[in-house]
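User:
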Amino acid sequence: MHGSEAKIRVRYEETDKMGIVYHANYFQWFEVARIQFLDEIGMPYKGLEEDGYFLPVLECTASFKMPARFDDRVSIISNVGFQSPLRLYIEYHVFRGREKLAEGSTTHAFVCNQGKVIRPPDLFTKLVK
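Assistant: Predicted structure:
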């Protein structure tokens, strides 16, 4: 698995009445980390789409350990690999400093613009394996 680290500063709007980050926002953070990983390996998502490849989410999970709060600086560590030749699996670990706040995962398939499952580009496979 290959990894990446994205950094987020928690915005006020991401918190709920209790002052903690609303759980659904973690999935947006996972997307930030995923897009950054694609940029880092030289295969930005926009370019994949322009080449006719799309990566819909097939499954997503999240488990929360400690709350994040407004103005916290958090890091999302992503580890990316293949679950099968056609399924991409990404693990996410959310930290505030050394304190683990949450973890989660997403599973994706490569599909064409007609929605049919297709093999990922050869270069992508080489870069991720």
